[in-house]
Write a structure and sequence with these properties.
By secondary structure, the chain is mainly alpha-helical. It has 2 domains: 70 residues, Multidrug-efflux Transporter Regulator, Chain: A, Domain 2; 67 residues, no CATH class. The chain has 8 helices and 3 strands, in the order βααββαααααα. A 3-stranded antiparallel β-sheet has the order 1-3-2. A hairpin with a 5-residue loop joins strand 2 and strand 3. The relative contact order is 0.13.
Amino acid sequence: MKKDQINKDTPIYTISIVSDLLNVSVHTLRMYEREGLIITYKKTSGHRLYSQNDVEKISCIRNAIKEKKVSISAIRMMYSLLPCWKILGCSEEERKQCKAYNNYDNPCWTVIHYNNICANKDCRECPVYAKQASCNSIKDVIKDLTK
């Protein structure tokens, strides 16, 4: 990567900038976070920052809601179908003890993990969370895992 290029995962945009870029209210962005659709980077001061990938995710969410008439709960359910256990290589024993494995309502990054592979992970950095970066990625992930 060149010196003048910014990594697409680097949180650099404030909530007001993202609000302006996507023509969405700050309240709506906070709601998406509360609903588990996005994980916002928070500075020690509590201020939210967003990366270019976050902006793309939010754009996909907006498109699904506005253009395709998909509800927030349906988006959450679709994210919950990402096979996190397969992506992370969880054992059968780990799956038995994992709340996310048997949860069909919320993505794994919204579940509190105890004594498993995800217990000490930053979900923002997790490959499972990264897999839902683009609008088509969930279906693509499932296709790749079933080849």
